[in-house]
Amino acid sequence: MNIVGRPNGAGIAFNQRNGVNARPLDGILVVSLEHAIAAPFCTRQLADLGARVIKVERPGSGDFARAYDSRVKGQSSHFVWTNRSKESLALDLKDLTQLDALKKIVAKADVLVQNLAPGAASRMGLSFDALHANCPKLIVCDISGYGNDGPYRDKKAYDLLIQAEAGLLSVTGTSETPCKAGNSMADIAAGMYAYSSILAALLKRHRTGEGGHIDISMLESLAEWMNYPMYYAYDDASPPPRTGASHATIFPYGPFATKDGAVILGIQNEREWALFCDKVLANAALSNDSRFNANTKRNENRAALNALIIDVFRSLSTEAVEGRLDEALIANGRMNDMAGLWSHPQLGARARWRSIASPAGHIPALLPPGRHSSFDYRMDPIPAPGEHTRAILCEFGIDEMA
């Protein structure tokens, strides 16, 4: 694997925190009682923007996501993705002395994030209600499967279970078999909404001086992403069918076999459909065929249209089909695997890769999406379990505990 990018921070004077290169969240302290993906994904993005994130972990083993696998130089793929640029503080929160130490740190924080088991933070006195009187500027973000109230409040939730509850499985897969998405979609959705909600709360606090409480539900986060299929099935209408890698309601839109592989293409409107028939299929008259002259008709007659497309593509190489599609300005792409994504020429050309430190040595990491003219993202090391415990306790004037 050959990932080339400029060295961490090259060309950026990161020590000029009050100048043009200051990051948006410089000076913001986030304490996070986090594990797995949703909360760590949220707080890593806060760290990307300059926030100081203190990650509270179990002594010894730390976040259980560290042991999900060992694919990245002996480290977990999930963990290295979601935990760069953080400090690791190892505390046994069942020990009252160590819990009290955490509360002293939280008292000086701007944001507290937690995705512990339902009710755990409240039992430790770390709920918004317990903290607000003494910490009126503190923003508390709770991330859970189903939210802080309602009949499902105490129900355990994992990504696959929420994908099922939110209906994602029902519209994903083939007509015979429902499938989960290949990534942690419910966790990612919850992490993204927690991240954007915290940014909104910080903006409001800047105006009012008051902190606030954020209650993020994995179910509600993923349900928001399911609004299109929900509305498609409005008023007891039939839901979108499971159609594998093809679009459920737009056609042609999906993978089509070629002589030596496959291409992914998408037709969005009638202008593109006419160009596709003329320039790609070399059959301009097909665009006016009464079976195919509107998307609803193409969708209803997709089997017949698919056969016509494949009849043309089977004699052409993937490269030849892509050439025709590009000439006709028809959107298309290749079905990359992970090796293809690692080596994607566009990511390389836009210098999206950096090298970050980890307990097992340097590893490549993608910059967050979005270029900013006034600052560069923070891309600091992944911490070892409890790596910063001594320094953090000393900084906050807490006697080191046994």
Sequence-ordered SSE layout with sheet pairings:
Layout: E1 29-33, H1 38-48, E2 52-57, H2 77-82, E3 86-90, H3 96-106, E4 111-114, H4 120-123, H5 128-132, E5 139-144, H6 159-165, H7 185-208, E6 212-217, H8 218-225, H9 227-232, E7 253-257, E8 262-266, H10 270-280, H11 295-300, H12 302-313, H13 318-327, E9 331-333, H14 338-342, H15 345-349, E10 353-356, E11 363-366, H16 389-395
Parallel strand pairs: 1-2, 1-4, 2-3, 4-5, 5-6
Antiparallel strand pairs: 7-8, 8-9, 10-11
Helix pairs in contact: 1-7, 7-8
Features:
single chain, 402 residues, alpha/beta, Rossmann fold, formyl-coa transferase, domain 3, 2 domains, 6-stranded parallel β-sheet, 3-stranded antiparallel β-sheet, 34% helix, elongated, disordered N terminus
Helix content: 25-40%
C-alpha geometry: elongated
State the CATH architecture of the largest domain. Answer: 3-Layer(aba) Sandwich
Element order: H for helix, E for strand: EHEHEHEHHEHHEHHEEHHHHEHHEEH
Oligomerization? single chain
Mean model confidence by pLDDT:
93
The number of distinct structural domains comes to: 2
Described by strand count, sense and barrel closure, the largest sheet is:
6 strands, parallel
* Helix-strand category: alpha/beta
Predict the CATH topology of the largest domain. Rossmann fold
Q: In CATH's first tier, which class of the largest domain applies?
A: Alpha Beta
Say which CATH homologous superfamily of the largest domain is assigned: Crotonobetainyl-coa:carnitine coa-transferase, domain 1
Estimated share of beta-strand residues: 5-15%
Number of strands: 11
Spatial strand arrangement across the major sheet:
3-2-1-4-5-6
**Helix segment tally:** 16
> Which regions have little confidence, pLDDT < 50, spanning 5+ residues?
1-16
Query: First CA to last CA: what distance?
Result: 44 Å
**What is the CA-atom radius of gyration, in angstroms?**
25 Å
